[in-house]
């Protein structure tokens, strides 16, 4: 898409750089070669336009040119890849899309619950960060076993599940990097390093200033990444 065209013809993505949900949405849009107007959000100062589009107030929020709103990250991923999937993220080498969605649900459910109570224990009354770290590590152990038989979660090339899950493993690792690095999960370590070196991840991690109404549009363009 030509950024000289009116930004009304572009989807608008409200995003927060470090949010793992927003990371995976951005990566899928880039993989699908869908350019978007990027509006970087500061979570303590959410813009009125975002809240009008999605009153629940979480990122990411994708507003399409026809005013359709998609405000769940996995739904954004699947929508984008249904539009265009040149890297076959929806068609894994091993298994099916439904199989990937089951694994993603385990990440978004039990793993994310333990991650939050490990990383942000003070926000949850009675949360024991050590207990939740251990529970998270049990899930990581299962992923490591899966990766022992394939370079990626569903075969020899990355697919939807890899990009949907990797941002959360990154967040878990960065909570106590030294401890994570000492875990005996050689396949998981190798996979995460590979994922974090991918052009999709690096391409969507540039820093942007907080968006304010009236700012000159900023575009996240797939051609500049891939």
Secondary-structure content class: alpha+beta
Q: Quote the average pLDDT.
A: 95
What is the makeup of the main sheet?
A: 5 strands, mixed
Secondary structure tally: strands: 5
Shape: globular
Radius of gyration: 18 Å
- How many DSSP H or I helices? 9
Quaternary organisation = single chain
Please tell me the total number of domains.
2
CATH first level of the largest domain: Alpha Beta
- The CATH architecture name of the largest domain reads 3-Layer(aba) Sandwich
Strands of the largest sheet, in order across it? 4-3-1-2-5
Gap from first CA to last CA: 14 Å
Q: Which blocks of ≥5 consecutive residues have pLDDT under 50? A: 1-6
Q: What's the CATH superfamily of the largest domain, by name?
A: Glutaredoxin
Q: Return the CATH topology of the largest domain.
A: Glutaredoxin
GO molecular function: transferase activity
Protein name: Glutathione S-transferase
Keywords: Transferase
GO cellular component, one term: cytoplasm
